[in-house]
């Protein structure tokens, strides 16, 4: 028989299978989740960035005295565990979601909160570490999701740039190989002036070179994070 735990939020109470680290809000959202049939965690970079953000926020909040150091330490340990072990089953929410991915932010808060509470007390719950009060302290989905998206994109840009530049070199090699192959140019679906196949591949190589420059120019913007102060309210 599955062991259950009782969780509460502003809408009421719900029993959650105690084997899971996610909580009541995630359990509610799974029932009305999107229709893609594909979880966000299938691309884990955003979740990994969220774990890093929550870890950094816990450290910062403890440093300024807003959070008890014991609570911050438990959150940091939970985030480190999530960054090094596979807990994909704890993040079941669908790729298609409304609400700016608030549900994804809360799913992460609940998993970290229950895991941190377990580290601090030996069991899941929120009597020591709370998903909103502590894990999400001084944050908002308006902060965390765009920031996590930026951090997730940055390393992928590096990979894409490498591939684009490799493709550029391949096209340059073909431009040399086909430099004496003459063909009819095409424009607006009509025959045009002749050119060599090498010139055509040279154009492809030039396109890849320009694309790599554009992608590299985008990368610094990925580190302009919007954490802190973007949600409404006076604080």
Q: How would you sum up this structure, described in words?
A:
- There is one protein chain.
- The protein is mostly helical and 235 residues long.
- The strands form two sheets. The protein has a two-stranded antiparallel ribbon with strand order 1-2.
- The longest helix has 37 residues, at 141-177.
- The chain has helices at residues 24-31, 45-63, 69-84, 102-121, 131-135, 141-177, 197-218, and strands spanning 4-9, 12-17, 182-187, 190-196.
- Helices cover 54% and strands 11% of the residues.
- The model has no long low-confidence stretch (mean pLDDT 92).
Chain-wise SSE layout:
Layout: E1 4-9, E2 12-17, H1 24-31, H2 45-63, H3 69-84, H4 102-121, H5 131-135, H6 141-177, E3 182-187, E4 190-196, H7 197-218
Antiparallel strand pairs: 1-2, 3-4
Helical segment count: 7
Subunit organisation of the chains: single chain
Radius of gyration: 25 Å
Distance between the termini: 45 Å
Uncertain spans: none
**Content of β-strand:** 5-15%
Q: What structural class do helix, strand and pairing data support?
A: mainly alpha
What is the 3D shape? elongated
List keywords for this structure.
235 residues; 4 strands; two-stranded antiparallel sheet; 7 helices
Summarize the structure.
The protein has helices at 24-31, 45-63, 69-84, 102-121, 131-135, 141-177, 197-218, and strands at 4-9, 12-17, 182-187, 190-196.
């Amino acid at each position: 028989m599955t062991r259950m735990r009782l969780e509460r939020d502003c809408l009421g109470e719900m029993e959650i299978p105690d084997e899971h680290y996610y909580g009541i809000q995630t359990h509610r959202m799974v029932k009305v989740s999107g229709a893609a049939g594909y979880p966000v965690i299938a691309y884990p970079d955003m979740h990994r960035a969220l774990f890093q953000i929550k870890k950094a926020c816990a450290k910062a909040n403890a440093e300024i005295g807003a959070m008890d150091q014991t609570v911050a330490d438990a959150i940091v340990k939970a985030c480190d565990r999530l960054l090094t072990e596979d807990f994909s089953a704890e993040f079941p929410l669908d790729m298609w979601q409304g609400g700016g991915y608030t549900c994804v932010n809360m799913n992460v808060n609940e998993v970290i909160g229950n895991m941190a509470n377990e580290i601090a007390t030996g069991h899941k719950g929120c009597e020591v570490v709370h998903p909103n009060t502590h894990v999400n302290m001084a944050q908002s989905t308006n902060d965390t999701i765009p920031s996590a998206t930026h951090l997730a994109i940055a390393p992928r840009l590096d990979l894409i740039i490498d591939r684009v530049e490799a493709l550029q070199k391949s096209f340059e090699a073909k431009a040399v190989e086909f430099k004496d192959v003459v063909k009819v140019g095409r424009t607006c679906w009509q025959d045009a002036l002749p050119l060599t196949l090498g010139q055509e591949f040279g154009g492809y190589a030039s396109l890849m070179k320009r694309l790599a420059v554009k992608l590299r120019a985008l990368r610094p913007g990925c580190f302009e994070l919007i954490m802190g102060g973007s949600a409404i309210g006076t604080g």
